[in-house]
Amino acid sequence: MFERVFTPLGITSDDLVWRDNAYREHEIDGIARREFGSGISANVDAMARLGYLYLRDGQWEDGQLLSRAFVEMARTTPRAIEGLEVLLPEMYGQASDHYGLLWWNNADATLSQVPRNTFWTWGLYESLIVVFPDLDIVVARAGESFADGSGPYSKLEPFFQPIVDAVVE
């Protein structure tokens, strides 16, 4: 990832590091392993650059760092998982209708005033990379968690909506 994607984006090991495994053994048969649950720690500049790469369909300067098809998979929900039962829907809503390839989306317009093609990463403490293709905007956010709302999207709407309103107005 560093050689093929992060370095061309100008992201260094000072900007982004994988956290140590938190839930699983560090090796399998002597081979180091990663777990997505351990996450990545990144500064907002690195987050914004990654978001911009996705906004531009994987294109960075004069190179195609990610295929357009890969980016499209990230911003859409596979039909095979739409409508799957969600454990604790009171906490997670209908998450299976909003999840692509490690990215969330608004394809079903749950956030009614936010463009349907908006998609985002969503990490610990509501760390977000939000891509608004219709608005040609990327927003990176890190910091404290949002106040709890009645569901997962009620937390996001007060953050997303002013951005959309500022551009639309």
CATH architecture: 3-Layer(aba) Sandwich
Radius of gyration: 17 Å
Overall geometry comes to globular
Would you identify the regions where 5 or more consecutive residues have pLDDT less than 50? none
Fold-level CATH name: Beta-lactamase
Number of helices: 5
Q: What pattern of helices and strands is seen along the backbone?
A: HEEEEHEEHHEEEEH
Largest sheet: 4 strands, antiparallel
Rounded mean pLDDT score: 87
Query: How big a fraction of the residues is strand?
Result: 15-25%
Features:
169 residues; alpha+beta; Beta-lactamase; 4-stranded antiparallel beta sheet; two-stranded antiparallel ribbon; 5 helices; 19% strand; globular
Notes on the protein architecture:
The radius of gyration is 17 Å and the shape is globular. It has a single domain, classed as DD-peptidase/beta-lactamase superfamily (Beta-lactamase, 3-Layer(aba) Sandwich), CATH 3.40.710.10. The protein has helices spanning 2-9, 44-55, 68-75, 89-92, 152-168, and strands at residues 16-18, 27-28, 31-32, 40-42, 59-60, 63-64, 104-105, 119-123, 127-132, 137-141. Helix content is 29%, strand content 19%. The strands form 4 sheets. A 4-stranded antiparallel beta sheet has the order 7-8-9-10, covered by helices on one side. The protein has a two-stranded antiparallel ribbon with strand order 1-4. A two-stranded antiparallel ribbon has the order 2-3. The termini are far apart. With 169 residues, the protein is an alpha+beta fold. Strand 2 (27-28) and strand 3 (31-32) form a beta hairpin.
